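Final report, closing paragraph on structural work. Over the funding period we assembled a curated collection of sequence-structure pairs, and we close with a single example.
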Amino acid sequence: MSVKFELSNCRIGVALQVGYNHSDSTFGWKGYKNALTIYYMHSNENFIKEEHSYSLVPGLTPVVSVKNVRTVLLGQPYTQCVEDINYTTQGCLYGKLLDRVVRMCQCYPSYAEDGKNLKKKFSEVEECNFYLHATCVSFVKEQFDQTEVTCKPACYQDSIHQESI
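Its predicted structure, as stored:
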């Protein structure tokens, strides 16, 4: 679900996604059982972050205040950044995580964002099944350390940050 808010004379886009875990408490799930989780992100961001989420449990009413932040880096010679307007550091990290899953598990996670594009890139490997997800993919994802990989910052970046809850 995507929602547009209009504040004074500026327009910001906020993408909201709701995840519902009805009964699954198997290995690899995060969050409460039988509860909703709302994820918020800037409309230009393509990847959900756990730190941009709140669990919605019965009896509680979360009120979250967020702000839109635009970051512009100067580029060469001051900063090594990627000038592609569609590039994000989070997208780069996500791509490296998916590459590692394919390399270590010998399957591509078609259920993940960009999983279908990986099929074209890694046509020699099969789609990850439930067994591979439980025994390999979830392990690789849990062990993935973002500090071990290098992704340059984006020269232009819009994001949303929590101000208060």
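The chain is about 25% helix and 30% strand. Residues 89-105 form the longest helix (17 residues). We thank the funder for supporting this effort.
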